[in-house]
């Protein structure tokens, strides 16, 4: 049998070799005849092949084991997890804050930033923050947010219309997929020419 020295993290993942303490196991895999074996017989087969007996499904009756190189098995599992993690889409939400009486210069500055955020694929959460008595201007805040959404209609679609939550009036904008796909398709056209 192979060296039983393993790092402490890998010991927690699966029971291997002598740590499997059941009378019999079901062996599966490419390099062994499948079936139910006494634990001593399964360990002997693993030892002859100079591989590890690894418990794959401990809750099955009898537990399912595979004869494999355990370090290689762990490496392949980490590789699969990494690939799955890479495939997941990470959603970034950028916030833009307005006052109820934001002037045009500040508005245009924030509009420019929102466009760049949306082009990068991030969601934009724009909100008007009302301090003290400025809550009296909530209609102005709603008009401002609707104007903001209207100015960004080429880049984003409205996910949530303006809603007053405490002292904030919030609107959520999601990037349009057509803007991102146009960027991706342009380099392809250049290479075809």
Give a quick precis of the structure.
This protein is an alpha/beta fold. It has 6 helices and 8 strands.
Fold blueprint:
Layout: H1 8-13, E1 24-28, E2 35-38, H2 39-48, E3 52-57, E4 64-68, H3 70-87, E5 93-98, H4 104-119, E6 123-129, H5 138-151, E7 156-165, E8 168-175, H6 177-192
Parallel strand pairs: 1-4, 5-6
Antiparallel strand pairs: 1-2, 3-4, 6-8, 7-8
Properties at a glance:
193 residues, four-stranded mixed beta sheet, 6 helices, disordered N terminus
In words, what does this structure look like?
With 193 residues, the protein is an alpha/beta fold. 41% of the residues lie in helices and 26% in strands. The protein has helices spanning 8-13, 39-48, 70-87, 104-119, 138-151, 177-192, and strands at 24-28, 35-38, 52-57, 64-68, 93-98, 123-129, 156-165, 168-175. The strands form two sheets. Strands 2-1-4-3 form a four-stranded mixed beta sheet. Strands 5-6-8-7 form a four-stranded mixed beta sheet. Helix 4 links the parallel strand 5 and strand 6 (123-129). The chain is rod-shaped. The termini are far apart. 19% of the residues are buried. The model is unreliable at 3-10 and 178-193 (pLDDT under 50).
Question: Given the C-alpha coordinates, what overall shape results?
Answer: rod-shaped
Largest sheet: 4 strands, mixed
What is the typical, i.e. mean, pLDDT? Answer: 81
**Chain oligomer state:** single chain
Number of extended strands: 8
Number of helices: 6
Q: What distance lies between the first and last C-alpha atoms, to the nearest angstrom?
A: 61 Å
The strand order across the widest sheet is 2-1-4-3
Strand content: 25-35%
Helix content: 40-55%
Give helix and strand order, one letter per element, not per position.
Answer: HEEHEEHEHEHEEH
Structural class: alpha/beta
The parts where pLDDT drops under 50 for at least 5 residues are 3-10, 178-193
Please give the radius of gyration in angstroms: 30 Å
């Amino acid at each position: 049998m192979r060296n039983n020295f393993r790092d402490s993290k890998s010991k927690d993942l699966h029971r291997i070799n002598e740590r499997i303490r059941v009378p019999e196991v079901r062996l599966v895999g490419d390099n062994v005849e499948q079936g139910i074996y006494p634990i001593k017989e399964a360990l002997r087969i693993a030892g002859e092949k100079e591989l590890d007996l690894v418990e794959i499904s401990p809750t099955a009756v009898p537990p399912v084991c595979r004869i494999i190189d355990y370090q290689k098995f762990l490496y392949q599992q980490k590789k699969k997890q990494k690939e799955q993690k890479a495939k997941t889409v990470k959603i970034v939400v950028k916030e833009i804050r307005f006052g109820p009486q934001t002037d045009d210069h500040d508005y245009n500055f924030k509009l420019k930033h929102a466009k760049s955020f949306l082009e990068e694929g991030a969601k934009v959460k724009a909100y008007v923050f009302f301090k003290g008595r400025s809550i009296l201007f909530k209609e102005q805040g709603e008009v401002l947010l609707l104007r903001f959404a209207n100015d960004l209609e080429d880049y984003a679609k409205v996910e949530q219309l303006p809603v007053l939550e405490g002292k904030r009036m919030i609107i959520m904008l999601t990037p349009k997929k057509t803007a991102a796909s146009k960027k991706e398709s342009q380099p392809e056209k250049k290479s075809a020419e």
